[in-house]
Design goal:
5 domains; 973 residues; PDDEXK_AddAB-type; Rossmann fold; alpha/beta; elongated; 6-stranded parallel β-sheet; Double-strand break repair protein AddB
Amino acid sequence: MSETVRPGAVLTIPPGVPFVDRLAALLLAEAGDDPLTLAGMEVLLPNRRACRALADAFLRQSGGRPVLLPRLHPLGDLESDDPADPGDLAPVLPALERRLSLTRLVLAFAAGQDGPPPPPDQAARLATELGRLLDEIAAERLDPAGLDRLVPEDHATHWQVTLRFLAIVTKLWPGILAERGAIDPAERLNHAVAARLAAWAARPPAHPVIAAGTTGSHPAVADLLAAIARLPQGRVILPGLDLGGDAASWDALDPTHPQYGLKALLARIGIDRAAVVPLDGADGPRPDRVRLATEALRPAATCEAWRDLGPVPAEALAGVTRLDAPGPREEAGAIALMLRRALDEEGRTAALVTPDRALARRVADELGRWGIRIDDSAGRPLDLTEPGTFLRLTARMVAERFAPVETLACLKHPLAAGGRSPAGFRALVRRLETAALRGPRPAPGLAGLRRGVEDPALLTLLDDLDLITAPFAAALAAAETDLATLARAHFECAEALADAKDAPGPARLWAGEAGEAAARFAAELTEAAPALGPLAGRHYPALFEELLAGVVVRSAWETHPRLHIWGPLEARLQQPDLLILGGLNEGTWPAAVEADPWMSRPMRAAFGLPPAERRIGLAAHDFVQGFAAAEVVLTRAQRVEGTPTVPSRWLTRLDAVLAAHRQIWPDDGRDWLAWHDRLDRPAAWVRPQPPAPCPPLAARPRRLSVTEIETWMRDPYAIYARHVLGLVALDPIDADPGAADYGSMVHLALERFLRTFPDHLPPDPAAALRAIGAEVFAEAVASPAVWAFWWPRFVAIAGWVAGRETARRPELASSHPELRGALRLAAPAGPFTLVAKADRIDRRHDGSLDLIDYKTGQPPTAREVAAGYAPQLPLEAAIARAGGFADLPAAPPARLLYWRLGGGEPAGEERLAGADAAALAEAALDGLRALIATYDDPATPYPARPHPDYAPRYSDYLHLARVREWSSGGAEE
C-alpha cells in the first residue's frame, strides 16, 4: 500500500448530480463490455439503503439489462460482515441488553447518592445517553483514564458527581463486556477497520476498491477512506465537495459549516482540496444555485464578501419553490398534494426529505386520502402501531388498577376480544362503560367496578378479565421482582386478552409487519431482562414504554414505487425528479444542540470529544445537496402548536442574500396552500338556521318536573331532545366531582342532617353537620385533591347552616327534606302531570309553609322569578298548596327562600324569591297552563334558545342544536 495518495484517487460528484446514477454510469463505463470486470469491483457505501439504491441505479443505467453487480458493502452498518474476515472479533452486545446493563449501572450508582434514585424509565433514558457517550469515546479512540484529568475541583458539585460515575463506568464496563463475551459497536468497527488495514498492508487488493458517498465523520471510517485512497486501485468519491470557494472561507470553516466534515476528511487523507478531481464540473449542472448556497452559508468571518456579491441570476432559483405554511397541517397537506401531482406524469419520481418524524407521518396520512401508501425510510414507531399500542394500554390498565380512562382505552382497542368475538366484546365494554366507568372514578380494581354492576353478562365479563389479568397484576404488585417475570406475565396477559372466538390471541397480536416487530421486541426483552436486575413491579409500565419507544417498523411491501420519504442521509445519494425539503425550522432541521447530561462543553473539549455542533455541519451538507436538485421545494410551518417558529438558519441566510439585492423567491408556494384548503372546503357556505322541530302531539311530553318547566321556557329544544328523542347526556369518564356533583353532596348532607335531627338540634349542630358531610364526601370523592378543594367550603357552609338552623327552629313545627310531589292539570291535549322534588319544606306553627331551595351556585333573581323564567319554587308552592306532597297536608305558602351555599365569603346567604309567595305560586301556575296549551298546538315548534338573554347557562344539547354555528356573528367567507 502506497504511502502517498496517487493523483485521481479522490474525486467528488458535485451537488445536483444524482450520485448513485453517476457512480453507476462511471463504473459501467470503466467495466466496458466485460461483466467480470464490474463484478470484480468492491464498492463501500454509507448504509444498506445506499447499497440498494446503487443496485437500482445499475439497472437504470444498463437500460434494464441484467449485469453482474460489484460487491456492495455498507460502511454504516455496524453489524455487517467485514470482508477482512474479523471472525475472531467478539460479537456486538445486543442493543437492548446493552441498554439494560447500562441502566443497571445508573441505578446502582444513584442508590449510593443522597436523595431518591431515579425510576428505571428515567435511568433507561440516561443509559441511552451513556451508551452514546461510550460510543463517542471509543470512536475517537480516547483513553477513559483521561476523565481523571478533567480537574473535578474546577467544576460544580454535580459535575464532580457525574465524573465520578463516568470513571466507575469506564472501569467496570470493559469487564462487563468481557464477562458476556461481547464488544461495543464502535469498538468492533475500530477492530474491523484495523484488521482490514492490516490485511491490505500485507497484501494490497488486486481489484478496484471504491468508497463513495460518505463524509468520513467516524474516525475509523476516515482511516479506511485514507487507506483506500492509497491503494493501487482505490478511489474515494466524495459527495458535494466545494472546489470553488475562496481560500479565506475554507480556512475559516467552523463545525456548523457544510464543508467542515469534508475538510477534516481531506486532512486525514493527506490531500489538498485542489487535488480532488471533479466529475461533471466543479459546480455541477446548476452552478448559479450552488454558488448562491455557497455564498449564503459562507463562514461568519468572511460574510463581508456579501457586499461585493452581484445580483443573484434568475437561473439560480429556477425550479425552486419556497413555502411558508401557517402550521404543520397545512405544510403536510401541501406536500402531499405535490407528491400526488407528481404521479400524474408518467415515470416522474418525488421524495420528501425531512428529519421531522411528525411531519413525515402527517404527509403519509394525507396521502392516504388517495389510497397511496408511501415508503418511509425511517419506518413507523412500534409504540404507535396497533400491537405496540395494545401492549402499552394493557400494561397501563392493569398497573392503574382498572382506572376508567385506561380501561376503556385498552378494552376498546381492536385487538381486545377476551375470548369473544371482537364486536360482541366491544358491545359488552360499552355497556360496562355506562354502568360503571362514567362519572366519578370507582374504587380501584375490578372489585370497584363490580360494585356498580348488576348485569350478569357484565359480571361474567369482569370475572373473565380477572382471570386474564390476575397473574400480571400480581407481578406488578410485587415489591421486588425481575423484568423477565414481568415481561412474560405482560405478554401472556396481552395474548389472552387478544384471544378471539375465531382466532387465538397470539395469532392476532403478533400478525403482520408490526406484529412481527413486536414479537421480536418481546423476545429480545425477555432474553435481555436479566441484565437489569431486580425492580419493583410498579415501575414496569413506564420502563416498558421507554424501551419500546425506540423500536421502528419498516414496511417492505405495498408502497408506491415512485414516492418516498427519506431522512437526510438517504437523500444524500439519491435525487428524484421532485425533491421536497420539509420541516426547515430551527430546532428541527437543523436539530437543536441538546445539552450533554454527562459532560459540559468545556469538559468535552478538554477530554478530546468533538463539539456537538458537528452534527449541524453534517445536516447543512445534506441541505446543500438537496438544494441543488433540479426541482426543489423548501417548506416550513410558521407556527407549531400555536407557538411561532424560527426559520432554519439556512433559509435565514438565503433570505439575507436575496434581500441584500432586493430579490424575492420566485415561487412562494401559495397556490399549493390554497388548493389544499379547498380540498375540505365546501363549494358554498349555507348559514344554518336554529332548529325548531314540530313533533306530533302523541310524541310530546305529558309529564315534566318543575326544573324542566324552567328549561321548557328558556330552551324548548332541550325538552324535545330529552323527552321526544330520548337523548340523555352521558357522564364524563373519570370525572372529578365538579360544581354539580358538589351541589348534590351538599344536598345529601343537609337531607341526612334534617332526618337525623328532625325535632331538636344537637348541642353542636355545626360539628354534627360536618361529621355527616365527611361521610357523604367519603362515599362520593375518591380524589384527595378534589376533597381538599371542596371540603373547606363545606366546613364554612356547615357553620352558616348551623347558625341559621339555631335561629329558625323555634319558629317551625316540622321540617321535611327532599319531598316528592305531583299536580295533575287539565290541558287541551289531555291531562298534564307536574312533578317536583323539593329540597326542603318547613311547616310553621301557624300551618303555613316555607319552601327552601338550596343553591351552591348563583340563585335566580327576584326579577327572573317574577317574569316567570325561574318558576321552580313558585310551582312547588302551588303543588304544596294543593296538597300534592306526600305526608304534607295542603297549606298556603308563607315564604319562598333561596339558600345560597357557596362556602366563600359569606359562606351562606338567604334570599326571598318574592314578597308575595301565594301570588307568585298562582302566577306560575297560570303561566304553566298557558305554556302547556301553547305546546298542545301541533303547529308549535320546540325552538332552541328563543330568548338568548334568558337562555340557560348550560345545556347538554348545545352541540346537537349546533348553537355555535347559527349564533355566530356572520357566515364564513
